[in-house]
Amino acid sequence: MKATNRSAGLARIFSPMVALALAVAAFAPTAAFASTAANTTIVNTATVNYNDAGNVAQTAVTATASVTVTLVASLPLLSSPPAVPGASQGVPTVLTYTITSTANGQDTYTLGSSVVSSNVGPATPTFPASIQLGGTTLASAATAGATSILVPYDGNVSGAASINGLVVGNQIMIGGNPYTITTITKNASANTATIGIGAALSAGTAVAAGIVIGQTATFTVTVPSSAVTTGSSGTETVTTTATSGAGTTPQATPTVITISRPTLTVTKTVSTDGGTTFGATATAAPGVSLVYKIVATNTGTTQAQAVAFTDLIPQYLTYVPNSGKYSTAAATYSTATAVADGAGGYTFSANTVAFNPGGATGTVAGSNGVLILFFRATIN
Amino acid sequence: MIRIWSPAPRAFIALALSLAAGASIAKPRLEIAIAQAREVVEGKKTRMVPIQSASPGDVVQYTLTYANKGDEVANDAVIDDPIPKGTTFLANTAAGEGAEVTFSSDGGKTFAAPVRLSYEIRLPSGEVQKRIATPADYTHVRFLIKQVAAGKSGSVAFRVRVN
Question: Which residues of A touch B98 (CB under 8 A)?
């Protein structure tokens, strides 16, 4: 009963305080989110001083109790890699993600990634199963110019090189900027640790005590570029997720990969004037040496590789040995590059001209790149 | 008859003297223990659960139990408890039967009742203003118990929020 009266009395004393506290709060900048790092020990030591009946001071007695702060799982920040507009069919796309912890301690984040295909075959991405990120909080405010931050001691004496999962070389976010940890110094008696960052905190940095300092790291997701179903392109929409005890966070904007395939068109024309002018049709007398021109044009958006020609010499024509020439750009017979029979992937065999140059020559760029082959044949 | 019994009063005197000697070494002996607990709500009931760990944001109640294990009254027992680092005192939560509660907002140098606690700040103009300390500014809580009779015990408590 007396206790009730006492607390009621306290409430009466405090009630004007609440109004005052609100008034003061308007002046004091308040931290958006204050937190204590996981594994921090909160020690409460009470001391009693008292006198005996004769009012002689007696030896004080103390008692201590400690609470260990637990990890509070928190959704990490996961980047959204930009769209990939020019992926080639058959060439995997590697997406690099940045993940940043917002938890007060070390946690493991299970990764997931899925692909929705549109006009391309199904694709199964590959990625690490999980990623471990350290995290702590500021024990005192961090300001511009400082080359270290003060964080709570994690109670781990043996793990001198690591504080709440953070080790030298890790990147941590302070005030929105990444810094690399260069040193970790623990001070158990002060219940703190100092994390050296090798560089001065950038101008304008003002991070209040209690703010979470999370590790930031990257991981990659490799997405196979499946075959385009119809036409020249399709898309793969990739959504990657990170899951912790706080739930699952997906990338904010799914990454769209546009996969194109090369599309070759081929034309064949003939010249009766030695390779200056070409037409689809011509008239010529027996004995005239004709120049044939075969043009492969890539109207797709990605390069075509290993482009190869074969052409059966028609009836009533005789191939002129070593008359082959080629070009990877617009050319006439006289400006093209000669290629001897049996050299550079060029052959004449079984009445068939074949050209399979491979390498750079056999690669035809997208958006109307060309490979041109000339050869001569005489009308019998 | 009187002579036969004469040693008896002497024995009584000796006994009385030894009792007096015992009384002169009577002392109070206070002991204190801290229990830490968290309030758990189960439907309409709440109960306090002892804890070893807590999450940021959790409210922790510290209950300080004192007992006079001596054989004499303890006077002016002053229990000083710094608000643990990493926590913030919660307003209106410090109380105890027969205990007078005061707070410090200057690291334990001075203690006062809440309304009289103030701190100074320097305004951008250079003017120094006194402001009333808020519970978040408290650094210490003090419980004064005027008397703890021999063999008696009691408890005081306060709550903090883990930062």
Answer: 2
CA distance B12 to chain A (A): 27
Quick check: B62 contacting A, CB < 8 Å? yes
Rounded CA-CA distance B64/B144 in Å is 13
CB contacts < 8 Å between A and B, how many? 162
Contact (CB<8Å) B97/A104? no
Look at residues A239, A260, A281 and tell me which one is the last residue of a structural domain. Answer: A260
Looking at residues A6-10, what average pLDDT do you find?
Answer: 41
Domain count, chain A: 2
pLDDT digits (tens, 9 = 90+) for A228-248: 998 888 999 999 999 999 999
For A250, residues 6+ apart whose C-beta sits below 8 A from its C-beta are: A78, A239, A240, A241
Q: How many residues does chain A have?
A: 380
Tell me the CB-side half-sphere exposure of residue A231, using CA atoms within 13 A. Answer: 8
- Please judge whether A48 and B81 are an interchain contact, meaning their C-beta atoms are less than 8 angstroms apart: no
Judged by DSSP in three states, A2 sits in helix
Q: Is the pLDDT of residue A27 over 50?
A: no
Q: CA of B7, closest CA in chain A: separation in Å?
A: 35
**For B21-74, what is each residue's pLDDT tens digit?**
444 578 899 999 999 999 888 888 888 899 999 988 889 999 999 999 999 999
**Rounded to an integer, what distance in angstroms lies between the CA atom of residue A85 and that of residue A256?**
8
Q: Are A246 and A275 found together in one domain?
A: no
Place of tokens 């020249």: A232
Domain boundary among A230, A260, A290: A260
**In the structure encoding, which two tokens stand for residue B47, read together?**
């109960």
Residue-wise pLDDT tens digits, A188-225? 888 899 999 989 999 888 999 889 999 999 999 999 99
ipTM of the complex model? 0.75
Domains of chain B: 27-162 (2.60.40)
Q: Name the B residues in 142-161 with CB < 8 Å from any A CB.
A: 148
CATH number assigned to the domain comprising residue A150: 2.60.40.2310
pLDDT in tens, A252-304: 999 999 998 888 999 999 999 988 899 999 899 999 999 999 999 998 878 88
pLDDT at A335 over 70: yes
Rounded to 10 degrees, the C-alpha dihedral A81/A85/A89/A95 comes to -10
SS3 for A227-291 is CECCCCEEEEEEEEEEEECCEEEECCCCEEEEEECCCEEEEEEEECCCCCCCECCCCCCCCCEEE
Q: Any alpha helices (H) in A80-134, and if so which ranges?
A: none
Domain shared by A251 and A304, yes or no: no
Nearest alpha carbon to residue A101 among A41, A156, A165, A163: A165
CA end-to-end span of chain A? 127
pLDDT > 90: percent of chain A: 73
Is A72 in CB contact (< 8 Å) with chain B?
Answer: yes
Range of the domain at A296: 264-379
